[in-house]
Amino acid sequence: EINELDHFCGGSLINKDWVLSAAHCFQNTAASNVKIYLGHHLQTGSNPNEISRIVTRLITHPSYSTTTKNNDIALLQLSSSVTFTDYIKPVCLAAAGSVFGGGTKSWITGWGKLNFVGDDLPGFISFSSTESSSGSPSLLLHSTFPSHHPSFL
Q1: CA–CA distance, 61 with 121 (Å, rounded to integer)
Q2: Fold of 12-78
Q3: Integer CA distances (angstroms), 118 to 114, 122, 125, 127, 145, in order
Q4: If 16 and its partner were Cys, which of 8, 21, 75, 81 is the partner (CB 3.0–4.6 Å)?
């Protein structure tokens, strides 16, 4: 069971009813034990534009591998639809079949560590621009793995 005060993974709102996240975050977790916070910018203190939703359905990729982390993707259905605001908007998703050549720019966001030393996490959400690798369908590679598979995000 997940303590409602513990942050454990990030995700991206993809429409008014669904959040996209990583499958490894939800191993052995019931959807009803997950609460999603949207418009959450600071880990501590006031977040006046924040709303929350309970997850009613959790779908992990049927080919997700806990060993290789291939297909590490999950969809979370929210308990009620979100009204978009200046602070809560869905991310832009590429159309099906889109191909990104080397150098395609995109944005990455998250609450994770800013360096490899220590366990300190930032108190605010971080973001950065990045470019895809030539010949790679991946825009963001898991840096903890020595090589990557095309199913990685």
Answers
A1: 28
A2: Thrombin, subunit H (2.40.10)
A3: 10, 12, 18, 20, 19
A4: 81
| pTM for this model (two decimals) | 0.72
Tell me: the pLDDT tens digits for 56-66? 999 999 999 98
Amino acid at 15: N
Give the contacts of 123 (CB within 8 A, at least 6 positions apart): 42, 43, 44
Q: Minimum mean pLDDT among 7-21, 60-74, 92-106, 124-138: which range?
A: 124-138
Report pLDDT digits (tens) over 18-48.
999 999 888 888 888 899 989 876 666 777 8
Length of the chain: 153
Handedness of CA 96, 25, 82, 106 (dihedral sign): negative
